[in-house]
Amino acid sequence: EGVWRLFKLRISAHEDPGKDFWGVSEPLLREISKVLEFPVASMLPPEAFKVVRKSFDARKLQKEPKFVYTVDMDVDKLLNLEPRTWEFISELEQKVGVIESMPHGRFSSDLISIIRNCTKRNETAASTEVFGRNDFSESYKFPNNRKPKVAVVGSGPSGLFASLVLAEFGGDVTLIERGQAVEQRGRDIGALVVRRMLQLESNFCFGEGGAGTWSDGKLVTRIGKNNSSVMAVLETLVHFGAPSSILVDGKPHLGTDRLIPLLRNFRRHLQELGVTIRFGTRVDDLIVEGERVVGVKVSDSGCSSESSSQKLGYDAVFLAVGHSARDTYQMLLSHNVDVVQKDFSVGLRVEHPQELINSIQYSGLAKEVQSGRGKIPVADYKVAEYVDGKDVGTPLNSESIGRSCYSFCMCPGGQVVLTSTNPSELCINGMSFSRRSSRWANAAIVVTVSSKDFEALNFHGPLAGLEFQRAYERRAATLGGGNFVVPVQTVTDFLDSKMSETTIPASSYRLGVKAANLHDLFPAHITEALQHSVLMFDKELPGFVSKNGLLHGVETRTSSPVQITRRSDTWESTSLKGLYPVGEGAGYAGGITSAAVDGMYAGFALAQNLGLYNGSM
Ligand code: FAD
After folding, report:
1. Could you tell me if 138 and 261 are in contact, meaning their C-beta atoms sit under 8 angstroms apart?
2. DSSP letters of 213-240?
3. Rounded CA gap, 605 and 617, in Å?
4. pLDDT: which is higher, 265 or 402
5. Percent of the chain scored above 90 by pLDDT?
6. What pLDDT does 596 receive?
7. pLDDT in tens, 169-192
8. Which CATH number belongs to the domain containing residue 260 in this structure?
9. Burial tier of 514 (Cβ tally within 10 Å: 0-12, 13-18, 19+)
């Protein structure tokens, strides 16, 4: 009895109702009956089954691309089958060996309940019962029974989820964001793309929703989709307006057009919980007394004068500032906060016609894609190689060997966008809309770099990686000739180290591209590792090396170049009490979902430290 899970049920792309159908179709029931060795598929009640995962598998080795399902079977709903057929069911566990019950750890299931409950505004009483918030007034130790005051700096996924959890537990939360709310941010990004006006504090990295807003909105994470904290994040997003298919889709994706209204709903909800949100407000400094942070100094981010500066007192400060808050990292060092170097990756963004990627991945089935409106999803790819100098015939420089090289943040049907936060630096990334209907497919091709690489440029100390990023962003700006024009080279010319002709393929990048030799960008060993990897990728994706593939420079902000170290028990900074570094900028997450999960867990940790929550972790 209970719920059993059936894995790896495969339906051919021809039979399946398609990528936008998430229910139990007839072909799926037939496949279930086959796996269960159940004689008559039509006798299985569809309501006994729930699709919990659906993905499209177009691996080349397969004769025919297939949709692959994971399905939960509610055994109780099968009990009214006639006895003879029930015999089959009762023997299932031994027969198929693909069934698993689904245990949840206590904290995980609590997490799901709290997030579910806290996103249903009128049902907070339920979460009160689960988490003993009734004890709140007795357990916290602040004078005059006042609520603990918490500043959350940064409204990216980590800051938003931290604010949500803390506000639910009764904290007095102020969310401080240097950028603008999505409505104004949209106008600022429009001015950038159309008139080349970069607002230093409201752009593709800074503003409501953080770096993840004008993004591809992929929600896949290496933490694993079955992780219950990931599910809690996804369910919360659904509550705020994401389609429920993200709970089932093997590669969930939102797209910028869906993220914007979702963030507006998230904001309203936080405000209804009593969170004060200050957009256009930058944290310039921490106020430290003894070994503890007791507040922050903020200024109107549109204004650089001292007179706009304000001091605000808090019991705790969450630092959820993302990987581009370079001034904030610098400020932390002035307080001797523990910040250490972290390895990350740099490289180029490659763009191919989406049709080419569709045909590489799907062969004859490519026509079914129909610019995102068809039955099967727009094709993506994910490739990774270890650079060992074998297999492609060319001997490699010893410094190239031993690096990982991989595709990163692949955006099918997307566009290349400018993620600079300073006009003298040039860096790029990719975004898309929910339909993924553009003519292009782009992805970063990056290679790992570490302290050895930073030292080679004479960069030392905790911010050496940041200086390394900056050096190549400046070089890319120079190679492009300024004005945010991006230097480009075709994949074939990059392999041959020759300038591309004036007739370079069209690019989705809106601010203009200029032919350049991208070998002039990185040190020779990084270029060589990238060349080697592109050749290896072509073995996996024949056609990847193409004169229609255009490499754009430079991709540097793949993850944070530092870690702001924190204690594993209290989640506080290892050097400053009351400071909670979270999310990607602190070096504890990479991507929208993992940053949200980190913010959520850190929110629980602080709630616990403040005596707002006494559950176990
Ligand atoms: P961020 O989202 O970076 O948020 C930090 C916030 O803090 C910013 O809004 C910033 O303005 C604010 N801030 C910084 N300093 C201060 C200060 N001193 N005072 C006040 N506020 C401050 N990830 C995916 O998983 N899937 C994708 O498809 C994807 N696509 C991307 C596309 C683009 C163009 C970019 C740039 C990133 C993309 N990412 C994607 C990465 C993802 O956006 C980040 O991993 C994620 O947003 C990190 O969340 P965070 O909360 O840690 O930080």
Report:
1. no
2. TTS--B---TT-TT-HHHHHHHHHHHHT
3. 8
4. 265
5. 67
6. 96
7. 889 999 999 999 999 999 999 999
8. 3.50.50.60
9. middle
In the chain, the number of structural domains is 3
Protein residue whose Cα sits closest to atom 14 of ligand 1: 321
Which atom belonging to ligand 1 lies closest to the Cα atom of 417? 34
- Ligand 1 proximity of 436 Cβ (cutoff 6 Å): no
Assess whether 321 and 359 both reside in one domain: no
Q: What is the mean pLDDT of residues 147-165?
A: 96
**Prediction ipTM score:** 0.99
Considering the domain architecture, whether residues 384 and 419 belong to the same structural domain is answered as: yes
Instruction: Examine the domain organization and report whether 318 and 285 are in the same domain.
Output: yes
Q: Answer whether residue 614 is part of any domain.
A: no
**Residue positions counted in the chain:** 617
| Residue to substitute in 152, 163, 174, 177 for testing ligand 1 pocket (most ligand atoms within 8 angstroms of CB) | 177
Residue 508 lies in a domain: yes
Residues 429 and 410 grouped into a single domain: yes
What predicted TM-score, i.e. pTM, was given to this entire model?
0.89
- Provide the pairing of β-strand 562-564 with 550-555: unpaired
Which of 215, 249, 580 to probe ligand 1 with, by most ligand atoms within 8 A of CB? 215
* Structural domain for 150, as ranges: 107-302+309-341+562-609
Evaluate whether residue 72 is within a structural domain.
yes
Give yes or no for residue 325 CB within 6 A of ligand 1. yes
**Counting atoms of ligand 1 from 1, which one is nearest the CA of 411?**
28
